[in-house]
């Protein structure tokens, strides 16, 4: 049975300029519901800018970004961001809140009952592989980097948003923990059916996580392919990235 792909986000002729310089130009692509799209590219290629256009931390200078068929500029900002979890490298956990309270932040803003928030926080801790009785009452500084990232993922999932944006969330981890958490996250993403946009400059990570890889170069999206097709790309920038894989294998 072939399933009709449903569009979650669409970029239509999107350009963003600052001081007469285009940070991203002429972006035209769709992100499908349930997929894991990895934006890959060198530092400064425009990955983070593209991501921030989705949750309207930035707005296009030209063109439009549609979330659920409505331009982001027409969305109520709060409502839009509640539908889009956001995980960044530094996790942004509040240092003076326990793990449980950090995870329950959005549910408490949405006025869930305390008992319901606690149950949800514990459910999510289990989901990301942290034993609630050990971790729920700890503070962020009492966790390792990998554990903090897991809490960051749990927090982003707390109110069950259909979409997650992840900006190099595993960048600071040692390679073994990183691979472990990448694999777990991939499984989690597939099981939960979330739409994920993931930014990285690490092609190995792109191959572990993605259903499609979008390669950015100088503010443009130059290749957008499933990993198998990406491997055969003849674009010089794609070949430069693929060479990094050869060195690591
Ligand atoms: N607010 C801003 N004002 C002006 N220029 C900016 C702004 N934010 C980013 N830029 C520039 O836009 C370009 C793209 O930046 P962006 O952060 O999107 O790249 P990136 O691919 O995510 O890089 P990295 O991997 O280093 O995080 C860079 O040249 C950056 O210096």
Describe this structure in words.
The protein has 249 residues and is an alpha/beta fold. The chain has two domains: 1-83 and 163-249, Rossmann fold, CATH 3.40.50; 95-160. Helices cover 39% and strands 27% of the residues. The chain has eleven helices and ten strands. The chain has helices at residues 47-54, 77-82, 99-103, 105-109, 114-127, 132-135, 145-157, 175-192, 203-209, 227-231, 236-248; strands spanning 7-18, 21-32, 36-41, 62-67, 70-71, 84-88, 163-167, 195-200, 212-217, 220-225. The protein starts with 6 loop residues before the first strand and ends with a helix. The chain binds adenosine-5'-triphosphate. The site of adenosine-5'-triphosphate has 11 residues, from helix 1. Pfam families: ABC_tran. Keywords: ATP-binding, Nucleotide-binding, Transport. Residues 9-243 form the ABC transporter domain. Belongs to the ABC transporter superfamily. GO terms for molecular function: ABC-type quaternary ammonium compound transporting activity; ATP binding; ATP hydrolysis activity.
């Amino acid at each position: 049975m072939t399933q009709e792909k449903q569009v979650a986000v669409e970029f239509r002729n999107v350009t963003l300029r600052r001081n007469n310089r285009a940070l991203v130009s002429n972006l035209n692509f769709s992100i499908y519901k349930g997929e894991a799209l990895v934006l890959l590219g060198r530092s400064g290629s425009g990955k983070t800018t593209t991501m921030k256009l989705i949750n309207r931390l930035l707005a296009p200078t030209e063109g439009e970004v549609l979330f659920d068929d409505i331009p982001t500029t027409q969305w109520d900002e709060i409502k839009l961001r509640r539908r889009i979890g956001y995980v960044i490298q530094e996790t942004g956990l509040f240092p003076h809140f326990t793990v449980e309270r950090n995870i329950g932040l959005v549910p408490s803003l949405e006025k869930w009952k305390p008992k319901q928030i606690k149950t949800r926080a514990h459910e999510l801790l289990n989901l990301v592989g942290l034993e609630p009785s050990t971790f729920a009452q700890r503070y962020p500084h009492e966790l390792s980097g990998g554990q903090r990232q897991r809490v960051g993922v749990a927090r982003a999932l707390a109110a069950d948003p259909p979409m997650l944006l992840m900006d190099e969330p595993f960048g600071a981890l040692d390679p073994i923990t990183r691979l472990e958490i990448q694999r777990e996250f991939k499984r989690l993403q597939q099981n939960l059916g979330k739409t994920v946009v993931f930014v990285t400059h690490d092609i190995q990570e792109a191959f572990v996580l993605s259903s499609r890889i979008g390669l950015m170069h100088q503010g443009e999206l130059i290749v957008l392919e499933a990993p198998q097709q990406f491997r055969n790309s003849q674009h010089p920038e794609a070949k430069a990235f693929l060479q990094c894989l050869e060195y690591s294998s």
